[in-house]
Fold each of these.
Amino acid sequence: MKFLINLGLLLLLAVVLVVWVALPWPGVLALVLLFAAWLAATRRGRQTASVTGVGVSTLRQRLGSSAVIMIGTAGVVGVLVALLAMGEGYAETLRKTGSADTAIVMRGGSASEVMSVLDRDSIVVIPQAPGIARDAKGDPLASPELVVAANLPVRGGGPDDEGSVQLRGVGDRAWEVRPNLKIVAGRKFETGRRELVVGKSAQQQFAGLDVGKTVKLGSQEWSVVGVFASGDALESEIWGDADTVASTYRRGSSRASVTVKLADPKAFDTLKAALAADPRLKVDVDTTLHYFSKQSEGTAKVIRAIGITVGMIMAIGAAFGALNCMYAAVAARAREIATLRAIGFGGLPVVIAVMLETMLLALAGGVLGGLVAWLLFNGYSASTLAAGSVGKLSFQFVVSPQLLWDGLKWALAIGFVGGLFPAVRAARLPVASALREL
């Protein structure tokens, strides 16, 4: 029976921790205000504040055990925030790539551009659909594009160290549908020539992409004539003339996608309906904002799952460390706790005071871990591993306020678990036995 009761308490504790970690900040603020009101307005609350004050005042005498709790929690929060910042940075880079006033059209059922093939007839028909913006001459702002994977030597690697980069074949319209993309060095490539403009991030990742250098793509030599910046995932690509890229990689007149500028964001529904109703086409259309956000979902979820798993394993270790330290602290203060009980302090104030002390130490550790993670990883540049048909994507870690907040909640959860059982032991300590101890 006792085993079942303990099992039920552990399950209840697990549910409480899950709810706590998922609790938004207004809920946490409400709990803090209610607890503060209880401390100030009730007799047991005032007793709890007094016992907590006594415990906190003796922390200097227990620097070793206090440091174990703080450092253990700081390690958990630091690692958790750093891992989640990687997923956040990856997703943020892709989210910034699209916009609500541009759309991308691909072959029906294609998950990404590298899997899509549009024939020549589709490339001619798609730009004529309603909802697409037009220039001063009345021509549609539509950019048929080809995307292939190319291998290049990795910067700083050996002669055989190559990575996959995304090569995008474009025409003049590509610059008009993406006005945020600017040439920052050199010039644009010329139509019909084997010339490349490279993204800033691609230039940092791969060797030989400086202006004036030549690289081998396919079986041909290409000249690097410019560098562009866009502040998004496109910076990890290299661009060339679409017809020349298609000829090099034997893609004929096909293209992977057509990116269009919408007349306004509300015109997307008009465009989608027109393309769906055209019997000549079997295509899917999406806003680039939604398309690129969707591309990040799978990888971001995997990174988050890994981060939470590693965090949970480390949190269990930190909680056991806090348990050991607080059990030792309770044993060392047995006479003090017994004296408080003897002069009228109840068991509940003692329980809450011990837990508060542990949670305050864990909170300090959480602040330290979050600060270290922010200083070391916020803005840290990284890139995905390239494999198969997927090119490298460069991105920066993002230690957002939400991630720091989540880390602090994890710290408090560790303090809660680490202080709960020692606190219950302190409240159950026989007064007479404890007073006889030294």
Amino acid sequence: MTGPRVLFATPEVAGFAKTGGLADVSASLPRALAQLGAAVAVVMPYYNAVRRSGQPIERTPFVLPVPLGDRVLACRVYRSLLPRSSVPIYFIEHSPFFERDDPRLGRGLYQQVMLGGYRADYPDNAERFIFFSRAVLELVPHLDFRPEVIHVNDWQTALVPVFLAEAYRSRPGYNHLRTLLTIHNLAYQGIFGRDVLPLTGLPGWLFNPTQLEYHGFFNFLKAGIIYADAINTVSPTYAREIQTPEYGYGLEGLLASVQHKLTGIVNGCDYEQWDPAHDPHIAATYTPDTVVERKPLCKADLQRRFDLPVMADTPVLGMIARLVHQKGIDLVLSAAPGFLDLGCQIVFLGEGDREYHDQLQAFRSRHPNRVGLYLGFHEGLAHVIEAGADLFLMPSRYEPCGLNQLYSLKYGTPPVVRVTGGLADTVVNATEENIAAGTATGFAFHDYTASALYETVRWALTLYHHRPHHFRQIMQTAMRQDWSWNRSAREYVALYDRLCQTVARLQHG
């Protein structure tokens, strides 16, 4: 291997344990890095979901001593490979912290469903991920290679740079290490009371506004931003947005002050899993050259699966999302009666807040021949919707990167997006100018209003019904875009290389 040597620390990985897009990134990016010649290993907690994953897992001989407050806890390390790769993944075992998730009982990786039906964070989340962050650093000497960079992700691992600087830097084998912190969603920061500070073993004088303290609380993500050698977010636009009050969630001033070490790299799309040319979940495979003839077969299959009338000329709008305020479901529900007036069918897939579940169920009951609904997540149906819908709705209030718009582009299902974050960086709006230039790949609007969403869909349907040659052009242009992980991984390798060069300059004066 001639590329950088990277330890990738994450709280979740697709194929083992997943709650969202971070897990997809954590599975796909290390694979792509390895294909570019990097030496990479992944480390995550050993949840019950990992045990149930069906992946082959072996116990290693390593037992790590992990400091936690005034105790030292022993944790065993397990090992496997990322699916479809030779990339090793290590699991940190500690039963009291990580063997509690059970979907049957409403217990997830970070939250549990309470008696009232709402979700609440586990009260010991701070302790769990302080422990995990220390374990990541204790694992370093036991890897098959000597890492140069520890790449940490979100608040759950954001204390790794802090511990490295304050507790490990002087130890043999750690002085060369550099850290990269990726912020996947700034809204989740890991904010806890000051009383958790003794669990870190860090000196109390670090609890000040320029280091660990945040309005009287201990903010894990803020600490990581200050201590990490480099920071990135998952799109260039989001990297700029989080330096503003609208998107900064209280950290905009800090992020603006460290913009010299802040970059944005758009996530990639795993085309091994998401490609209509060889997708086993859809009724008919297709390419840009055959999309016009073959995609209608997928549309008919989608309509049948959701008990909708199979009508080829009726436009189908699809939405796959967490049903939460961030994703713009409030806009869609407000505009949806107008979409029906425009002659559309609408299909929803997702789960989230109870209020949106109730509103969608009521909407479906009022229009059973026009609206399809699946509450929950279903991998196969997600592929069916991406392939069968005519337009994909993604009007997010904010979207650090987004993956579904990348899937939609690949499947020739032009996304309708709000201009924010990664949506702004990946979708080219179908203005008359962009249509004439042959660069349009979807439809975009700026104002976070139901009327802006409605007017954008109405414009898309104008092309669909009255200028089908232009609509087909947008579909085919979208399908030919390259948003592969190979492209993203090259940018990460360049970022790692810059960090390693910094180390070399420091070591050689």
Amino acid sequence: MATQNVSEEQLQSQFTYIDAVARLLGDKHPKAYTHTFGCQQNEADTERIRGMLSEMGYEMTDTPDEADFILFNTCAVREHAEDRAFGNVGALRHLKKERAGIVIAMCGCMAQQEKNVEKIKKSYPQVNLLFGTHALWRFPSLLYRVLTEKKRVFDIGGEDDIAEGLPVLRAKGAKAWLSIMYGCNNFCTYCIVPYVRGRERSRRPEEIEKELRELVAAGYKEITLLGQNVNSYGKDLGIDVDFADLLRRLNAVPGDFWLRFMTSHPKDASPKLFSAMAECDKVAKQLHLPFQSGSDEILHRMNRRYTAEHYKSLIADARSKMPDITLSSDIIVGFPGETDEDFEQTLKLVQDTRFDLLFTFLYSPRTGTPAASYEDNATPQDKQRRFERLLKAQDEIVAEKQAAYQGKKLRLLVDGNAKGPEYPFTARTEGNLLVCVRGDDIKIGEFIEAEIEKTSLRCLFAHKL
């Protein structure tokens, strides 16, 4: 079944509510504070909520103490993210007592789970509004109800539809997020995402291209295409366009910018994709391809649907077409049933592949996923010992790879201010490596040529040429 879009009539009704909220607020000039937990998709969702708030007349603030509206966009991928969200909302209890008129809202993946809805209803009375990932586009009508009915509003309903045309308020700077699809069909046994974000649904390529052109015209230089599994883009559209085709189409948009994407799933990565990456001059030669475990037994228990050998063949193909490609990955240590032998296979894959960057996690059980009920015989001490060995091995690899950049001349995108006075700016290489840079007449948002003059484990240091 092809993905459906929210109808024009439904979308226009939300703009009517935006106007209605603006009339309610009048000339009060209220302030809104938003805080995002979790992934880049959550960041992109928050940008649309901020866009709607701005259209209503809210001004953004960086502190909740002076806000009239406070929103936490939550993550459910790991327990730590949930604990942080509850902790932040709990800390607002005193603020609510001081200023009863404040509206406190929660949304996102954590808010989509029934267990959390009940917990918030019973234990967090300061929360006025809660809505799930499927209800995001209905935010204006939900906020209008809160403001007019003076009652708590909870909405985690909705279909797996796409809403085009929502206002967006992006952060200023060099970088922007561009969602190309939503949801996930993979059902990895440890992951809650398909249950809270729904099935895969792709945006039409013409809508994506339109938004990219707007971003380029606005001066953004690094645009990251977002999806839970970008490699399966287009399968639900009923047209003969896949992710590699989309990359080629977007690469043809005029302008000087880099295209990145995340996240990729190895089961859907293909030689066609790597050929497109190699041949498209604006697509950064950087690949984030999570492998999670080097043990085929654990991969099977995770329902990842590839083997370690297949993963290594993908890396070999990518490197043969893009010798300078930068590689990163995700690894879960301590998945239920993981033995020392399984871990050794993971460690070997890391040592053989030599990633430029790894995101490593100790397994965190998620209620509602199959893995949460799996038998687990390893002790916390066993898992921590494996985790530390993995970190040590990866640090040794990174130290060698970083040192190899000494004296190289690279094109960098300046993207922010650094903390140290000697190197006052941060920048990124095409491979997404962090660089602290110094020199005259450097501006955030510009490409520069620079020479690497020293290296460290986490950062390169350069001077502008």
Amino acid sequence: MVSRTIPVDPFDLVLFGATGDLARRKILPSLYRRFLAGQMPEEARVIGAARSELSDDDFRDLVREALKEFVSEKAFDADTVETFVERCSYIAVDAKDDACWQQLKSMIRDDVIKAFYFSVAPSIFGPLAERLRDHGIACENSRLIVEKPFGTDLETARKLNDKLATSFGESQIYRIDHFLGKETVQNLMAVRFANVLFEPLWNERFIDHVQITVAETVGVGGRGSYYDTSGAMRDMVQNHLMQLLCLIAMEPPNQFEADRLRDEKLKVIRALDPIPPEDIVRGQYKASKENPSYAEDAENPDSLTESFIALKVGISNWRWKHTPFYLRTGKRMARRMSEIVVQFKETPHSIFDRDGASRANSLTIRLQPDEGMDLSLTIKEPGPGGMRLVNMPLDMSFADALGPRGGEIPDAYERLIMDVIRGDQTLFMRGDEVEAAWSWTDPVIAGWEERGDKPHPYSQGTSGPEAALMLMHRDGRRWRDLET
């Protein structure tokens, strides 16, 4: 099956922070791939904006270098690259200097969609939004894209929401979480709500527990000083893992529309139980022969910041009251993997010999590196000699089954940027959703800070600290193995 490409309307996208790492690694390559696919129209323009003094030609050289480094050989077409680069221009902009804003206004067309991408530090979101408003650059059909972190706690998130609200309406603000742009995450909604197979079973009567894992093999590296003020709870759980939990746990909206879907996610966040200390495990990776410790990466020998966290989360509503959700995420783990495992309960009574093995079904949703799903079923092992049962997966890789020619499926940023141009907020977080997530997260963080809890040390290349394994073992359950 070949995916369809539906062109969007002409647009001008102003990319603030255009010389930064995220722009080079993700945003510019994503725009190029949409141009290559024919979705980004010929009339579209990309205007890079940053504090560096660059000419248009300098910026175009930067774009070429970024595409050469971060676009696959299959997608890199020299002629198309040149055509795309010609649609890029640049302006040096200082968020606190009014002199350059009239020049930026003259570069943007009035008869196309205007999108402003803030790939910059959150501290200048407010000043940038105010300049766009005060100089008449933004208008009613403008869209504002903001990257995480969206605040560091409830208070800062509220202040940031209030600052943006003075210049843009909520319907114009797109708070981006790239996890929601992944093909598998969106297919999770399709699997749940477009098939009669799962929804009748999607509750505490039939599901034993849910595991959500986001494991990384890299350390904090050059982000050490930032990460040490954040940690895994703020950096990953409050946004990425929270969004995945919401999509698993939410009630079906009455239609697939942005605010109705986000209403249901908000209900899940507000139903989350407070987490007792015994249901939280924090860890910090130790030094290995090849790599420094977290404390060395963070340049803080006394750091109490977690590079790993595991949580047992409960949801107080009728659907999920007795079904625990286990969340874990960490750096320097055994392998890079993001997945959701929905573990169903065993049959009430087995007529077969179980030989000590579990025969419960499970649905595994793989987010990376190989996007897809598999459903574990119990079947008879082929051959004579009795009824020997084995668990076998029904496996679907999206790249193989649904991807375009060449086996590549669109990157999350490709999809999300095009959704912004279309004006579709379905996969973006609403302001009250962000604040509700911080309302749940803040007391957890405050609790371990008041107690002076220290993270458990763990070896690099493992599944995390031993205490995280015990978090599930005490309940008679096991994490999916990361080390095989």
